[in-house]
Amino acid sequence: MPPLDDTDRRLLNDFQRGFPLTARPYAALGRRLGVTEDEVRRRLGRLRDQGLISRIGAVVRPHTAGCSTLAALAVPPADLDRVAALVSDQPEVNHNYQREHTFNLWFVVCADSRPAVTRVLERIAAASGLEPLDLPLLEDFHIDLGFPLWT
Amino acid sequence: MDLTASDRALLAALAEGLPLSERPYADLAAALGLDEATVLARLAALQEGGVIRRFGVVVRHRPLGFTANAMVVWDIPEAQVAEAGRRLATAPEVRLCYRRPRRPGRWPYTLFCMVHGRDRDTVTAQVAALARRLDLDGYEHRILFSSRCFKQCGARYGKAA
């Protein structure tokens, strides 16, 4: 992966919130960075292809556009790859991480309703033979301002 | 605020990422049978209404060197958990801070927060300092570092149900 220059770093760091809601947002970014609109689009495409950008998009407040839960499985280590793959294969799963704990596979299920979330968990339970820990959000304290990458 | 069917479709389309085209909102609008001005107005309204909490570049932390991704879980009694959550949420090193249910016999922890850092030792020290500073070190807590990311993408609401 080529090293990131200052323009790359600013593209990653400076536009995590308040993305321009104007007809040509990449031109607006270009004016801020002193590069052309095409250059911005080309660089963002490259940063995405390099896996550094997940997407340009909205981080939605939990439970306003649907229903979600954080779930965990205690997977026998030898079976982890198989179970992780079957969890990732569910289109309703949007995060899936191995963590260091007896509950070693943690994932987020998002669907349109709580019954739909439950159905996904049941599907995963049936396919894995393991009982998911179901930890729906009860209260949200955080204000997401994006994350300072280089300070 | 209440979401219209059209708002839901817009959020679902946006979960794939804003196109990198010259007129990305016009392209998004065309795919949904809307016009560009409507999409821009709805996105502004959804941010104003707090449905969209932030709109912009969503980075992947791990390949950027933030390899220490810690979920910190705290066993805090019902009566104190909201106050503790509000205090934790103000800490600059904390991303996301949620209360979740205890599952007796399986899972005792009620408060969850995320701390990202460039290495484990730094994050471990940050969490210890955080606990002291916020007077939370009397509560049992654990740091669950992530060792592998199998999947990370935007929530696909309104798609598969």
UniProtKB/TrEMBL annotation, chain A:
Enzyme class of the recorded protein, top EC level: lyase
UniProt xrefs under InterPro entries: AsnC_trans_reg2, HTH-Siroheme_Decarb, NirdL-like_HTH, Tscrpt_reg_AsnC-like, Tscrpt_reg_HTH_AsnC-type_CS, WH-like_DNA-bd_sf, WH_DNA-bd_sf
Name by which UniProt lists this protein: siroheme decarboxylase
EC annotation from Swiss-Prot or TrEMBL: 4.1.1.111
Family matches, as SUPFAM superfamilies: Winged helix' DNA-binding domain
Protein family according to the UniProt entry: Belongs to the Ahb/Nir family.
GO molecular function, one term: lyase activity
Reactions it catalyzes: siroheme + 2 H(+) = 12,18-didecarboxysiroheme + 2 CO2
Metabolic or biological pathway, per its Swiss-Prot or TrEMBL entry: Porphyrin-containing compound metabolism
Coiled-coil segments: none
Domain Siroheme decarboxylase NirL-like HTH: 8-53
Domain Siroheme decarboxylase AsnC-like ligand binding: 68-139
Pfam families referenced in this protein's UniProt entry, alphabetically: AsnC_trans_reg2, NirdL-like_HTH
Organism: mine drainage metagenome
PANTHER family: SIROHEME DECARBOXYLASE NIRL SUBUNIT (PTHR43413:SF1), TRANSCRIPTIONAL REGULATOR, ASNC FAMILY (PTHR43413)
Claim: Cytoplasm is one of the keywords in the record: no
UniProt keyword list: Lyase
Automatic annotation (TrEMBL), chain B:
Keyword Lyase carried by entry: yes
SMART domains the record matches: HTH_ASNC
Reactions performed catalytically: siroheme + 2 H(+) = 12,18-didecarboxysiroheme + 2 CO2
EC number: 4.1.1.111
Record's keyword terms, sorted: Lyase
Leading EC class: lyase
Domain Siroheme decarboxylase AsnC-like ligand binding, residue spans: 64-151
The protein's annotated pathway: Porphyrin-containing compound metabolism
GO MF term set: lyase activity
InterPro entries: AsnC_trans_reg2, HTH-Siroheme_Decarb, NirdL-like_HTH, Tscrpt_reg_AsnC-like, WH_DNA-bd_sf
Family annotation (Pfam families): AsnC_trans_reg2, NirdL-like_HTH
Annotated ranges, domain Siroheme decarboxylase NirL-like HTH: 7-53
Family statement: Belongs to the Ahb/Nir family.
Name of the protein: siroheme decarboxylase
